[in-house]
Amino acid sequence: MIKEYCGLFGIYNHDEAARMAYFGLYAMQHRGQESAGIVTWDGTKIREQRGMGLVPEIFNERHLGKELKGRIAVGHVRYSTTGASLIRNAQPFLVRIRGMQMAIAHNGNLVNTVELRRELEASGSIFQTTMDSEIFVHLFAKYLGEGTLEEAVIKACERVRGAYSLLVLADNKMIAVKDPNGMRPLALGRTGDAWVIASETCAFDLLEAEYLRPIEPGEMVVIENKCLSSFKIAENVPTRQCIFEMVYFARPDSIVFGEDVYQCRKRMGQILAREAPADVDFVMPFPDSGNFACLGYSQASGLPMELAMIRNHYVGRTFIQPSQSMRDFSVRVKINPVRSLIKNKRICIVDDSIVRGTTIRTRVKKLRELGAREVHMRVACPPIRSPCFYGIDFSSKGELIAANNTIKDIATFIGLDSLHYLTLDGLLESVNGGDRWCKACFDGKYPIPVSPELDKMCLENQIALSW
């Protein structure tokens, strides 16, 4: 399974800011299930609640009704793409700088983390976590002595390289920033007199907030005293938004980078049907990620779509893993076949992506055991051949089946009669084209140069070496 990034939520000037942040994070739980946190500003001090696990496991009525007081709140759900999965790495990250209480929440991955940390430690900075996000804290501290908070944020952003959407709560002020390439999504909304900022618009829907617009690449939004102002922090930088948000990560009911995710995924399936037709009895998805591309494929091809695999929605994240002799049990418990649909049938699976190939291999094997006559597969994105250093948790070519095998070899490994991927041109057509997308995982062309030392555990490794 591909792991998600993180999700950000901020609300300014609401009577129940903490409760709204809770619901906003709940709506974006798909973006991270390792940890979550909410901080509020009560007019005097920052209050916080952070923990490991899912949003409903961390927050209760005591937190939302009594402890997290204030009309400003910032929240975060995390999946670690740099730094271990530990409570000390949960966000938002709190700090006091020059008498100012500050909370920082970050979505993305910096690619010059190791160099900057070495530089900052050499000048006296003491780090508390192994997150790349803490780099921002020490850069803010360095530059706050030279000007305003907004100026410090701009100077810090000039030093970092990589993908970031950032929320900063500092006393009575909330700041949102997107990196100059605009890789990570961030949107602006409003409910009544309150401003709302979130990684995805599905968070707005739950709060009945109005979606206003995406925050632009290289834009800094400052909200203070109920007023919003906007600044450009970088000029003449090409936009490179993560196309994998559209393929996999974002919820289908969200608008991301100004695009309707549901419609884009359906178009991926429609174009895939045009590029790679299949002579089969029906098409089927593996729920839930392949549902929308499969629907588009069915509509464009005229083939019926059957839900021949049923997902168990009640499998919790703490499900006890079985013994090695039953290593595929955790796959089987999540989805179960409708046996009557499969025997003697020619089937085409439509899914959003193949990363390592191990999970789909187990599922195809099951279809064969149940008597499927033919099993074909159509994938609604190009082969993933290059690692991502900007926030997706596949950071080496060894993890990617398409990086080391031909499509024919992949089909043989999985046990398929045929396998076709959506072309890169077809994918770009499905998301309304243009040259604004980062496609590095498909074409290996990285828009931001990457440090050779970078991987998920780079900071842990650096600390271990220093000891």
CATH-defined fold name of the largest domain:
Glutamine Phosphoribosylpyrophosphate, subunit 1, domain 1
Number of helices: 17
Strand content: 25-35%
Shape: globular
Spans of at least 5 consecutive residues with low confidence: 317-322, 458-467
Q: Helicity range of the residues?
A: 25-40%
Strand-pairing-aware structural class = alpha+beta
Let me know the CATH homologous superfamily of the largest domain: Aminohydrolase, N-terminal nucleophile (Ntn) domain
Short description:
The protein has helices at about 15-25, 55-60, 60-65, 115-120, 135-145, 150-160, 200-205, 245-250, 260-275, 290-300, 330, 360-370, 400-405, 405-415, 425-430, 440-445, 460-465, and strands at about 5-10, 35-40, 45-50, 70-80, 95, 100-110, 160-170, 175-180, 185-190, 195-200, 210-215, 220-225, 225-230, 240, 255, 260, 280-285, 310, 335, 345-350, 375-380, 420, 435-440. With about 475 residues, it is α+β, with helices and mostly antiparallel strands. A hairpin with a 4-residue loop joins strand 2 (about 35-40) and strand 3 (about 45-50).
Keywords:
single chain; Glutamine Phosphoribosylpyrophosphate, subunit 1, domain 1; Rossmann fold; 6-stranded antiparallel beta sheet; globular; disordered C terminus
